[in-house]
Design a protein that fits this description.
mainly alpha, 80% helix, 0% strand
């Protein structure tokens, strides 16, 4: 009985799993596009966009890890 109360009090880790999964999919997609297109990310604007999206996804994954721990 007591262990079920402790389990109910723990926060859900689903947001972290989603954010981490999205980050992992982004990394695989980014590596695939980078390997198949030699000119990727197509200039300075593309580089900034890729870095920005990567940074935001990493911050979201870390934030979800901290918030759901």
């Amino acid at each position: 009985m007591l262990s079920s109360l402790f389990a109910a009090a723990e926060p859900s880790h689903v947001p972290f799993f989603i954010a981490g999964g999205v980050l992992a999919v982004w990394a695989v997609l980014l590596s695939w596009v980078g390997l198949t297109r030699p000119a990727f990310p197509f200039g300075a604007g593309g580089q900034r966009a890729v870095m920005g999206v990567s940074f935001l996804l990493a911050v979201a994954a870390v934030a979800m890890a901290v918030l759901t721990s």
